[in-house]
Prior knowledge:
The protein has one helix spanning 9-15; strands at 2-6, 20-26, 37-42, 48-53, 60-65, 72-76, 90-92, 108-110.
Amino acid sequence: MRVSICHCLACQRRTGSPFGQQARFRRENVVISGGSSEYVRIGDEGSRIRFHFCPHCGATVYYEPEGLDDDYLAIPIGAFADPSFPAPSVSVYEERMHGWVVVPEGVEHIP
């Protein structure tokens, strides 16, 4: 559906980096297999996100944003381990973006 980066404080804390990045997919186009550990985090605006982690290494495998969880799920870009993965098309919570971060040209900006 889309590739996005999020500059919210919750994503910064969760990833240990200045932003989180995700690819959002329609749930019907993704097959989930194997077990996961789950953690529910409350975002900057109070919405809940259910994160699913590998029970062996702790890597985030996918997550389900509240309100979108019936139709979509998000997979962190790093989970693909593919440097040629498409660049983001959306950048959100930019009011919390670190001053040195440069967002690619042509990206939709959501303050």
